[in-house]
Amino acid sequence: MISVESLTKQYGPFTAVDHVSFTAETGRVTGFLGPNGAGKSTTMRVMVGLTPASSGRVTVSGRSYRELVNPGLEVGVLLDASAQHAGRTGREILTIAQQTMGLPRARVAETLARVGLTEDEAARRVRDYSLGMRQRLGLATALIGEPEVLILDEPANGLDPAGIRWMRDLLRGFADAGGTVLLSSHLLHEIEVIADDLVVIGQGKIVAQGSKSELLAAAGTLVRTADVDRLARALHEASVVTSPIDGGLRVDADPELVGETAHRAGVVLRELRPADGAGLEEMFLELTALTSRDDTAREGAAA
Ligand SMILES: Nc1ncnc2c1ncn2[C@@H]1O[C@H](COP(=O)(O)OP(=O)(O)OP(=O)(O)O)[C@@H](O)[C@H]1O
Ligand SMILES: [Mg+2]
């Protein structure tokens, strides 16, 4: 289990991470989701002791990362897959990790097989790796010590859809065997596929957290009709909250109630379905828009 308690990280006057608290539970894959610059990497760097917290604390299985004697055996870390030494081969990089952690030699070949890198690929220099191959190698380095906890920053970045499915299965198996996985992403759909639980961060602050099913279920119903105004009126009379979307409404009620209300009001529907994360998506898009506006403002001020 990973526990983050009121973690704050300041760079001078700028607060990159602002009183962030969450837990990543054992046996679950927790997705850490936020737009660019939200504070995901900063939080993870603090977690693994690469940068000190301004205040608050992080514990991994009850201890701080710095207290771990041979950390690779307890926490597998993948922070920046492109930071690997470009002149070394994949096998060399993994062998260094194996030796540093004092592991049996056979672990190198086993781990390469586990992440789907062939002998040929392992013999190539990392500078000739595709992004997806780098991610697999980074994951191999994280896994080689057989840790119980994985902390992975954007591990699916650069993977194609089959690669993302492969990673989902690998992380699922890891969590089902009693492991804890925390992985970050700036893409909602990528993380939706992989994670059980979600922690959403925007501008350094946690804006939502819960199980994926809870967060998706909170999204209500999507309904489309040519007669949006009449349907909205009927729903408001039934004290149901609606918000407009293109050609229809997002409704805070289940599809059955929306269908019955439409029927009673004599409104013909074109589409009626659970919103399945549309609420989450809207929230995420708002966060993203907010962040890019801020960046533009900051750049404008600097110019
Ligand atoms: N060493 C640093 N000095 C000053 N500011 C920093 C430093 N590191 C990060 N920041 C700032 O902290 C904020 C959070 O950055 P961080 O890298 O944690 O975001 P992120 O969520 O990982 O984004 P991305 O999706 O782009 O990877 C950004 O505004 C960034 O510019
Ligand atoms: Mg980052």
TrEMBL record:
It comes from the Bacteria. Keywords: ATP-binding, Nucleotide-binding, Transport. Gene3D superfamilies: P-loop containing nucleotide triphosphate hydrolases. Belongs to the ABC transporter superfamily. This is ABC transporter. SMART domains: AAA. GO terms for molecular function: ATP binding; ATP hydrolysis activity. Residues 2-228 form the ABC transporter domain.
